[in-house]
Amino acid sequence: MSNIDWLVLIGTLLFIVLYGVWKTRNISSVESYLLGDRDLKWWTIGLSVMATQASAITFLSTPGQAYEDGMRFAQFYIGLPVAMVILCIFVLPIYYRLKVYTAYEYLEGRFDLQTRTLAAILFLIGRGLAAGITIYAPAIILSTILGWNLSLTIILIGAVVIMYTVLGGTKAVSQTQEQQMIVILSGLVIAFFILLSQLPANVHLSDALGVAGKMGKLKVIDFNFDWSNRYNFWSGMLGGTFLFLSYFGTDQSQVQRYLSGKSLTESRLGLLFNGIFKVPMQFGVLFVGLMVFVFFLFEQPPVHFNQANLEQLRGTAYEAPLEALKVQSTTVFEQKRSAIDALIQSMRAEDQAAISQAQLRVKTLHDQDLQIRESVRELIEQHDPQLETKDDDYVFISFVINYLPVGMVGLLLAVIFSAAMSSTASELNALATTSVIDIYRRSLAPDRSDRHYLNVSKIMTILWGLLALAFAAFASLFDNLIEAVNIVGSVFYPIILGIFMVAFFLKSVGGRAVFIGALLGQVSVVTLYFLDHNEYINLAYLWLNIIGCFIVMILSVIFQQLLPEEPLEDPT
Amino acid sequence: MTQPQPDDHPPVFRTWNQVYGFVLLLHVLIISLFYLLTQSYT
Questions:
Q1: Distance from the CA of B37 to the CA of which of A70, A90, A463, B18 falls in 20 to 30 A?
Q2: Which pLDDT does position A118 carry in this prediction?
Q3: How many whole angstroms from its chain centre is CA A571?
């Protein structure tokens, strides 16, 4: 990396962090620290909510997903605007009326202390695990590509985040996220235009879309219902809505963002801002990945995007077969390049027969290319079965490092680091808040001074930060990083959502019934996940969100009948 | 410490239901565009 890139990277990150620390230098009470004086405007809330969800994994993994699998992952977010509207109507007014610090406080008034504590603990487990992945995922990729030490990269990301989150609390998180989102969005737009400019002079955007479409990469929407298909309209609209209801409505890392709003109106507008812009933003990230795919139709891609894996084969018995595969790949690439030129010409001439012929030729050669890439993976696996051979997550970062001009590499790395820091900061802030408000202050050490809780909040932030670093240090890769975070969410969140759904909509159910229902629901969801994981059943993980939520609701009603108990008066 | 202000009317629109309707309408528009994109290039 050039000196200019280092300057851009360090300068951007340093400015954001120092700005956040300076803006929050007068934090003196626990309410200021955890709720940020409740003075945020809607655009800060909206950007903060988006930044919390958009982790570094989003910018490393999502373009790679588009490269391999096309645009269909966009359907994952289809339910999000619906969830935002439902939350604005039913949930936000309740949180505001009760002036809560955390979402789980409401549950004690509605049910009892044990249900509140259970929901808080489920959140701490799920989010604590996810925080480790949030740091680890970008660290492993960045360290591999940049040749940095993995542990040092993890510590670098973690230490900076812990520092400003401890110093400035939730306000520092929101203030820095506003800047981080500006860097992220600008970086993406610039990356898109650079990609466009790097296509051959005679290839226009319409040609690029045409080729991508003919290669099956532009299937954004699929209305066919299929339980086992991870991403279609129905899994996104139904499963996704439930996932986002639980994530934005009951995950403290998000609830805390909009509870810092100046008024209910500002918070509602912040969430609706997210509802309007999140889907286009994710589409944009995927579209950048798609453009990388098109770029590598005209520029020969490496046979494997994780260069560190290829380095491992050097000097071994696998080096010669690897070189042979590289030669084969070059031949196929040149043939494919000609076939794509023919496809573009036939599309421009609107000659259907020629289009079909060229499309078939491109597909045949593309399949050969995929076969070569698979053979390379097999070589790596034969050399060392422990090595991760999936290289989707390395596609975008490889493009950034090898093809972007000087200065832009630094900016795009700043995008990825900003995203890593923004989501981790929200997580640490929320983990500390829930630990202090729902566990420590409520059950372990009530009636202490404000200063005491402020200090404990800071200590908790450090402890969760260190725990996240420990998880990150010992984490291992799932098959796809962004899916790993979503799967962890889909295992724990539906139970929390189920508890909240019972609280909001089944007023006759009391604390004992929902507590038993939630425990059995969690066992059921974990069982279903492992049955699917071990291929006894075929169930896409997004469906766990609906199934888990309904299991809790149904069991709660059943146990309310079996063990009748007068529910508490609704605190709202 | 600034206390949360009581709810007031939404900007631009008369009621919150109109705001929600607008957001959902935009979403339907986006899904339609995705569908058109899928149909046009597949």
A1: B18
A2: 94
A3: 34
DSSP string across A48-111: HHHHHH--HHHHHHHHHHHHHHTTGGGGGGTTHHHHHHHIIIIIHHHHHHHT-SSTTHHHHHHS
The SS3 of residue B24 is helix
Token representation of residue A561: 């009948």
Mean pLDDT of successive 10-residue segments in chain A (572 residues)?
Answer: 88 87 79 79 90 82 89 91 95 88 90 93 88 82 80 86 85 82 86 90 88 89 80 86 87 88 92 94 93 92 89 89 93 93 90 90 92 93 85 87 88 84 86 92 90 92 90 64 72 90 90 94 92 83 86 95 75 64
Distance, CA of A108 to CA of A113 (rounded, Å): 5
Nearest to A391 by CA among A23, A572, A145, A104: A145
- The pTM (predicted TM-score) of the whole model is 0.84
Residue B6 in this model has a pLDDT that exceeds 60: no
Q: Do B7 and A96 lie within an 8 Å CB cutoff?
A: yes
> In what helix (H) or strand (E) does residue A554 lie, and over which residues does it extend?
helix A543-562
- Beta pairing partners, A261: A40
> Is A200 in the B-facing interface, judged by CB distances under 8 Å?
no
For chain B, say whether A84 makes contact (Cβ under 8 Å): yes
Q: Cβ of A32 and B40 within 8 Å? A: no
Chain A positions in Cβ-Cβ contact with residue B5 (cut-off 8 Å): 262-265
Q: How many whole angstroms from its chain centre is CA A514?
A: 30
pLDDT tier, B3 (very low <50, low <70, confident <90, very high otherwise): very low
- What amino acid is encoded at A562 in this protein? L
Phi-psi group of A327: left, alpha or beta (phi > 0 → left; psi -120 to 50 → alpha; rest → beta): alpha
**Phi and psi dihedrals of B5, rounded to 5?**
-80, 150
- What are the φ and ψ backbone dihedral angles of A84, each rounded to 5 degrees? -60, -45
- Nearest CB to B24 within list A39, A81, A96: A81
- Please answer yes or no on whether B8 and A265 come within 8 Å at the CB atom: yes
Of A182, A218, A171, A204, residue with least CA distance to A75? A218
CA A503 → CA A55, A218, A519, distances in Å?
31, 42, 16
C-beta contacts of A354-359 below 8 A and 24+ residues apart: A355/A214, A359/A214
Which residues of chain B approach chain A closer than 8 Å at the C-beta?
1-11, 16, 19-20, 23-24, 26-27, 30-31, 34-35, 37-38, 40-42
Contact check, Cβ <8 Å, A218/B37: yes
Q: What is the dihedral of CA A505, A506, A507, A511, to 10 degrees?
A: -120
For helices A481-505 and A240-250, what crossing angle results, to 10°? Answer: 70
Both tokens of A214, joined, read 């003919």
The answer to whether the Cβ–Cβ distance between B10 and A265 falls below 8 Å is yes
Tokens 């098959």, residue? A479
